[in-house]
Design goal:
Oligomer: single chain
Number of strands: 5
CATH superfamily: YlxR-like
Order of helices and strands: EEEEEHHHH
Strand content: 15-25%
CATH architecture: 2-Layer Sandwich
CATH topology: Hypothetical Cytosolic Protein, Chain: A
Largest sheet: 3 strands, antiparallel
Distance between the termini: 15 Å
Strand order of the largest sheet: 4-3-5
Mean pLDDT: 84
Helix content: 25-40%
Shape: globular
Structural class: alpha+beta
Length: 110
Amino acid sequence: MTSHDTPEISGPVRTCIGCRRRAAKSELLRLVAGSVDGHPVVVPDPGGAATGRGAHLHPARECFDLAVRRKAFARALHVSLQGEASSAPVGAYLDSLPDDRHDKDRSTSS
């Protein structure tokens, strides 16, 4: 344990843009800025292979909702986004995940 009473995380560590908790990169969903009809949108990059600036989010609806409320997507990705529709692909991806995947990472980071 570190002096801040957080468990040691092995491997690369990233911060969730929703809850702002640090977690292993492998536990988080990578997000990148994409484009639909010439408008910037946030798209999930589960394989982590897309080029460009990325941001990370726990694959949980609570973290997604926090990120939307905090307008964290535009800030983290350094893009200008217009409204909630710009992060809709991420919400749709999270909705497509099995329910146990949504809660798995959050239960271990308390």
